[in-house]
Write a structure and sequence with these properties.
This protein is of the alpha+beta class. The chain has 9 helices and 16 strands.
Length: 364
Amino acid sequence: MTRRHQRESNDPGTPNRTLAKATPRASLQTGLPLAATLLAYLTLTSLAAFAQNTDVDDVHIAPRIETDKPGQISSEAALEDTVRAHAPLIKSKVDLVLVPVTVTDPMNRLVTGLDKENFAIFEGKDRQEVRHFSSEDAPISLGVIFDMSGSMSSKIERAREAVMEFFKTANPQDEFFLIAFADKPEEISDFTNSVDDLQGKLVYTVPKGRTALLDAIYLGLSKMRQAKYPKKSLLIISDGGDNHSRYTEGEIKSLVKEADVMIYSIGIYDHYFQTEEERLGPQLLSDISELSGGRSFTIDNPNDLADVATKIGIELRNQYVLGYRPKNPGHDGKWHKIKVKLLPPKGLPPLHVYAKTGYYASSQ
């Protein structure tokens, strides 16, 4: 898998968020001249990300599977669970496979206005019938994984501002929670619809200690079992690699692959790395985000945090959701690969898709 490591510029040039969200969706039509066609999709600010970029003929995405809502789990119980890196934690009965898809152009701008006929989905070698198509802004269950280790002291105010800007892109129906981590993760806020409540709790967080990033991701995925909506996403904000977790990178990657949660991450890194953990931090966040179908952003200026967080929030609001019922549904407990091909209107440049690569079927 090819990964691009791109840095956000010091001036991301984010457009007015209200205008971006209010812009009506344009309808793309086959055969339009290039200039007219390019005006037909929503142009947002360039999203510099290191994530999987694939060409139009070989785009891999993964389903969002409808699952029965598991029972609630406490923070302590979640961290005491035994993780088996190669044994699926979540295996759901597959009825309608739901696939959220983000499409961008060569400048990493979001592409909206595509129709059902612009997508073809394959499970294995079998093309599937797209029975569900939506590009509407559906409610989301959102969680923020917030780095409160000692190294964040000089960046904490900007990081808090980024969290609040991210939540400002939310709908009234959305629900969100907050987990902060240093030596260990801690649930700061349960699921809530109140941004003001989260803001109040963020003010009293104090940076100190080391970085248990992997443990925090595990707790966030566990918390998502209580989510109300089928569309779920985590946002990680951190300035370094892991140096204090009980769970391993392999264990967490296995859980991410099995979970139905998109992960976005913002890495705040200096121009040089003082430790090996810091040097590996960008790749760790990139790998985890890509596995989930999300994206990872790297910045070196804390002043850019709020703008990047806003971009991520807008991207979550401009995804396509495709659904199909497998022609040969299997309850074999195995990993099922999915491939999607874009069939874009003529005149558009090569487009790119970001999503996961498959799903685990139920063994029952």
